Amino acid sequence: MSITIAKATVLVADLVDALENVYWESPTISVKNQCFNMVRILQQEITELTKVSVQDHHYEYETIACPGKQVSEGLKALSKLLGNEILRTQTEAQLAPLLDQAKSVFK
Predict the structure, then answer these.
(1) What is the pLDDT confidence band of residue 55, given thresholds at 50, 70 and 90?
(2) How does pLDDT run across 68-103, given as a tens digit for each residue?
(3) Residue 98: what pLDDT?
(4) Distance (Å, rounded) from C-alpha 77 to C-alpha 31?
(5) Where does residue 45 fall: left (phi above 0), alpha (psi -120 to 50 degrees), or beta otherwise?
(6) Beta partners for 4?
(7) Looking at the predicted structure, is the pLDDT value of residue 1 above 70?
(8) By percentage, how much of the chain surpasses pLDDT 90?
(9) Could you give the CA distance from residue 69 to residue 50 in angstroms, rounded to a whole number?
(10) CA of 26: how far to CAs of 22, 66, 92, 104, in Å?
(11) Nearest-angstrom CA–CA distance, 95 and 81
(12) Contact 106, 63 (CB under 8 A)
């Protein structure tokens, strides 16, 4: 799936917010570790996206700071770990569509 740089910036920022919520809500270390890893990777991407000129935000998005495969594999691993987690309804509702969209963007 291709999206613009502007939409990718919003997606990555929203995903970081959702993963931070999961981190604080999760009682298991494995989920916390995976969330922490994904947040660090995605924050690097946000840092690079903020450097892109506003005039270029309509161009197609390509990962800058992190390999898309690394993000994709990390999100898949996190999804498997979350299968046994009980999240707040609000967090689950926020995270589920973001994960689906991110998985298609970071193939």
Answers:
(1) confident
(2) 788 889 999 998 988 878 788 999 999 999 999 998
(3) 94
(4) 9
(5) alpha
(6) 60
(7) no
(8) 48
(9) 22
(10) 6, 25, 12, 25
(11) 14
(12) yes
The share of the chain scoring above pLDDT 70, in percent, equals 99
Residue indicated by tokens 């569509």 = 97
Q: Considering only CA atoms, which of 106, 31, 39 is closest in space to residue 72?
A: 106
pTM of the model as a whole: 0.88
Q: Spell out the domain ranges in the chain.
A: 5-105
Alpha-carbon separation of residue 49 from 4, 42, 87, 92, 105 (angstroms): 11, 10, 29, 26, 15
SS3 of the chain: the string is CCCEHHHHHHHHHHHHHHHHHHHHHCCCHHHHHHHHHHHHHHHHHHHHHCCCCHHHCCCECCCCCCCHHHHHHHHHHHHHHHCCCCCCHHHHHHHHHHHHHHHHHCC
